[in-house]
Write a structure and sequence with these properties.
It is built from 16 helices and 15 strands. It is α/β, with parallel strands linked by helices. The strands form four sheets. The chain has a five-stranded antiparallel beta sheet.
């Protein structure tokens, strides 16, 4: 696991340096993780960051560093259903995209004030920020910094190697499929695993197969050549066919993995932290089982626990409001029928009580999820509904968890079953 603030803070600085070299006025800007989170949608037509629910309705919009007033956001997106297939929108579905989204939304006010090149619009600004990120080059620079000082960037998890060791002892075959090159992957596995394994055991004993430079997502859709990593320095030996035994390999494709393991589809559980490259493509193309690592989940659960009393209060107030609304509607119907003896007084009393409840519930709803994000609220909720990110997770991940070491709380023989889903017409219990 990476320290996201350290990783993204450095990525942001690389973006800022490149933009500064191109004449952008970014001298005083700095990475603000409170502005952004995973699961937001970038609207490159209007220059907004959007919080979207599972149906594509916009629940909140940030322009620059200010949330649009609710009525303005509703008016702007009243006829809009966000469709991620539309090139107008870009989904921030990885932690690596936080620095990019932060820089973009910070530069939007500069564009609005005419302080960026003449003729530049929101779409071109986004392209310029994306170009400054220049994924491959920046990632290479960042990885060099991580190798030089892993303690500043890597969060160690003592239970991770032990959880996988239990799986190994139970007869499971374990593999690593990484887009990183051999030298980086080897250094990270050395740093994060070996210190926690018993005796002389190392990560090389743990994994049956290590694939580096995999080129995901193409690894799952195309047939790339496979090489064996022949030396510790990363020299490669070409192969014909699939892996010839345990060890480290370069490139290849998913069919070779299935042949090596002797299994297909649902007998493989693939674990990753990228909603698209890991779980979406794997499930769609290979029909492997998928587990999404969602590091933010632990922080979200802490925020939910901290707001438990407020949530209970909102639920109680809404139950009271629903009952009072029912009585108010009955009084309205009496008035329409001409039976106005006590109906008007009853209606006036109900409306006054509803206003009082709204006055109490309003601040509670406004603060909902602020323990996770002061700007956006909870990660996996959008108002009273599921967020678009959670919808993507439900569609493509069989299970999700905050870290692989959570498997340490189960035996290697555990079977995870879906709970019975609720539907709106279920009886209230």
């Amino acid at each position: 696991h990476y320290n996201v603030r350290a990783w993204e803070g450095r990525a942001y600085e690389h973006i800022r340096r490149r933009l500064l070299e191109r004449g952008f006025p970014v001298e005083g800007l700095g990475f603000d993780p409170a502005l952004v989170m995973r699961g937001l949608v970038v609207d490159t037509e209007l220059g907004n960051l959007l919080k979207v629910d599972r149906f594509g309705f916009v629940k909140a919009a940030l322009h620059g560093e200010s949330l649009l007033p609710w009525q303005e956001a509703r008016r702007t997106y009243a006829r809009t259903l966000v469709d991620l297939a539309d090139p107008r929108y870009d989904f921030t579905n990885t932690l690596f995209s936080l620095s990019e989204a932060c820089m973009y939304t910070q530069l939007v006010p500069f564009l609005d004030r005419g302080e960026l090149p003449v003729g530049m619009g929101y779409l071109e600004l986004y392209r310029q920020v994306r170009l400054a990120l220049n994924g491959t080059h920046v990632e290479g620079e960042l990885k060099a910094e991580i190798l030089a000082d892993p303690e500043a960037f890597v969060e160690l998890d003592p239970e991770l190697p032990l959880a996988l060791l239990d799986q190994k002892r139970a007869g499971k075959k374990l593999m690593v499929i990484s887009n990183s090159d051999w030298l980086y992957a080897r250094a990270m596995l050395d740093y994060a695993f070996d210190r926690f394994l018993p005796g002389e055991t190392t990560w090389r004993d743990l994994f049956d197969l290590v694939v580096v430079s995999a080129r995901k997502p193409f690894f799952f859709s195309q047939k790339g050549p496979l090489f064996r990593v022949a030396t510790e320095e990363g020299l490669l030996e070409p192969l014909i066919g699939g892996p010839t035994g345990s060890g480290a390999y370069h490139g290849g494709h998913a069919e070779l993995i299935e042949s090596f393991l002797g299994v297909r589809g649902e007998r493989i559980l693939y674990v990753g932290d990228h909603v698209y490259t890991d779980v979406n493509v794997v499930k769609k193309l290979r029909r492997w089982r998928t587990a999404l690592v969602l590091r933010e989940l632990e922080r979200e659960l802490r925020a939910i626990e901290a707001e438990r009393d407020d949530h209970a209060r909102v639920e109680a107030l809404m139950a009271d409001k629903t009952a009072i609304e029912h009585r108010a509607n009955a009084a309205r119907l009496q008035l329409l029928r001409g039976d106005a003896d006590d109906a008007q007084a009853a209606l006036d009393d109900c409306l006054a009580r509803i206003r009082a409840i709204d006055d109490e519930i309003g601040p509670l709803l406004a603060d909902d999820g602020r323990g996770f994000s002061r700007v956006w609220g909870f990660l996996l909720r959008a108002g009273n509904d599921k967020s678009h990110l959670l919808r993507q997770i439900e569609r493509h991940a069989d299970i999700y968890t905050s870290r692989v070491s959570n498997l340490f709380g189960y035996t290697p023989f555990a079977y995870f079953r879906a709970t019975r889903g609720s539907v709106p017409h279920d009886p209230v219990r």
